[in-house]
Design brief:
The protein has helices at about 1-60, 70-95, 95-105, 110-120, 125-135, 150-175, 185-210, 220-265, 275-285, 290-300, 305-335, 350-355, 370-395, 400-430, 440-465, 475-495, 505-510, 515-535, 540-550, 550-580, and strands at about 140-145, 210-215, 435, 500. It is an all-alpha fold. Strands 1-2 form a two-stranded antiparallel sheet. Strands 3-4 form a two-stranded antiparallel sheet.
Amino acid sequence: MALSCNSSLQGSYASLPNKLTSEKNMRCNWQNEGDGLLKMLSAVYAKLLVVMGVCFPLGEVISHRIPVSYYEGFYLYLYFGSIAFLFYVYIFLLRHQKTVEKSKSGQPTTFCQIFAKKIVPFYRHSSWRLSMKSNTSSIKVSEGRHCGSFYLRLGAVAFGVGSMIYSGLEFGQFFELKRKSHCYNILYGLTPSIRMAFTFIQLYFIFLNSRVAIKKFKTLARFGLMHMIATNMCVWLHVLVAETKHEIMTNINHNLTQDVQSLVLQDEVMDYRRMNVEQYIHSRRKERSIEHEIYISHDCRRANIMGKLVQDVSPFLFPCTIEYSLICAAILYVMWKNIGKINNNTETASSGSYSSRNRHQYTVDCTKANKGLFSGIIILVSAIISLIIFFVLIKKEMYKNLAVMEAHVFELALYILSSIGVIIALIQVKKLKYNPYRNIELDNILLIVAQSGLYVFTMFSIIGGHFTMDQNTVLALLTAVACLIQATLQTIFILNASRRYCKNSNQMRKKPGREMVTFLLVCNFAMWSINTLETRRADSNPVQIHFYGFWAWTIITHVTTPLTIFFRFHSTVCLCDIWKHSYKVRPELI
């Protein structure tokens, strides 16, 4: 009788894991379907916000019937929603990291772990153990790989600081507005201050917690991260439209003032004795309602001391906001994709035990890099000299053409030299072992998006140079073609070399291609300085302005120049990562 009872108990115990497995499979299928639906809904929500972020600022500029700052409440919703989600993450999710660390040390911290360890020790089947493990891990916040290298996050800090300075200066303009004037609006002070707070809180989260893989409250996490992604995209679009509008109105102001001065000198102003210069300019602006309405917004916020200061520094600061938003949006997108995923070590060849053991140790080995470094320094010094000559000559009317020609000649030589360097580096790096499993999705996203902006800029330059080709414009055409070729070759090299590593100690000693990687790194820094200080200027592209007109070329440059600058910056980041990590031997592969 006892034997029969024991046999029946053994049979029930043997069938229990199979039942648990089938129930687990059904539950996993239902969860996968629900997760797929939630992913789609969160993506649609973000897409709707981005579309509104496109239409609102454009509608405010195009139509004179929409009051100024009518849509500022939409941006407050974006900022407050993102800040609330970040506080939620810090309060309800990140505080569980201590629980995760305790669970890794083997101490039972949850009821499920205690139940699995002490109450049912006789369930030895592997499927049962896997089921208990997945259940306990699904209620934690675990740490995965960093969404972005240290250099990229350091760049995010630099661009974030520039973005906060830009928002702070816009906030300072509010205190110069008179309370009883039509320009006064409390939103002019509230929106930039909240944007500055959002930038700081998000920057802190991105820099310190970008490797958090969320496995708890996944629904809210998906919508929260998508809300933050949409917020960054809307900030990008809002700043882009606002700065393009202000640039156009500054040019209109300048041209109208010059027209009045020339008419005054020629005594051709009708009834000028009864009308001063400002009234005449105002009457000219009313000829077109769109220009008049844009001018009202421009005159309200860019007329006083702080406004003129913002006008002077905005060409340097507003690209920082765009580049910061791009980095954060890409990092948050990768985090959104990794919600609920189990962190497996599929990248053993590229990270493995070596990187986990040295996660917080930063060492620099400069062997096989001296020639490339000093060759790049020569290029960098030449670039600085070229910029100085350009800025000295461009201020004098009789030397403007010479300044533009000098800039194009140096850029053409720089693109040709760096293209040759990329080809040599591609040939040398092919000796290293290729790892197709290394996860570089974030670098791919940032590099391809930034490269698209550079492609648009160079293609418009090629079209304008081709249809106005003569003895003076051929340099602009050749420079644009050389830039296009260099950017294409360099992108191919970065995406290929980022997945390579030394397969033995001999390659670690010789480090094939490291000299050229160092050279390209410094060259990209020189190109970044040229694009930041020179290319963005309207007077450095007279051929394109003559072909497209000031309005069209201003819009093209404001859309593409920040992405072109970011392409050079992110190329430098990727080359730093290749320089540091591709020339190390992974112990498990020797």
